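User: I'm putting together notes for a lab meeting next week and I want to include a structural view of one of the chains we've been expressing. I don't have a solved structure, so I'd like a prediction I can at least talk through. The sequence is below, exactly as it appears in our construct file.
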Amino acid sequence: MEFKLKFIVLMLGILFTGLTAGLCFTWSNAVIPGIARLDNLTFLKSFQSMNRAIINSSFLMVFFGPVVLLFFNSYLFKNNSTSFWLFLIAAILFFVGIGIVTIFGNVPLNETLDSSNLETLSKIELQELRNSFERPWNRWHTIRTLSSFSAFALLIIGMLYTK
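Assistant: Thanks for the context. Below is the predicted structure for the 163-residue chain, given as structure tokens.
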């Protein structure tokens, strides 16, 4: 029974972390460069729409599930020193780089954008809103991308040391 639980938690942690890393990578390499080419109003409306659409149960489970799974995974492998430390570092990286950064970095920017009635803003106000949103959001997202990829790699390496 213990082996089954360890295996399930490890596989779910790797799967959800990998999906998050893939989402962040794709967003960084396709979505951000693509919408960066749009005019201010279209860019801001597109981001508003994507931010509203992405908040759903499957996304939240995959994006934040590893915060719990990875720490539990570390605990389950506490008797395997190498895997334990790799899994714990992955858990901390994910917790800080995805959880904390998202909650205190990206979400406040998303909420500011979401509360803006874009159609009523002047061209200057649209430019100011975009300037105050785009660069900081992208910086926070770069941290998320690097953190999720690093956590995923550490999980794969740690898995190789499990018995």
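A couple of points you could mention at the meeting. The radius of gyration is 18 Å. The mean pLDDT is 95.

User: Perfect, that's what I needed.
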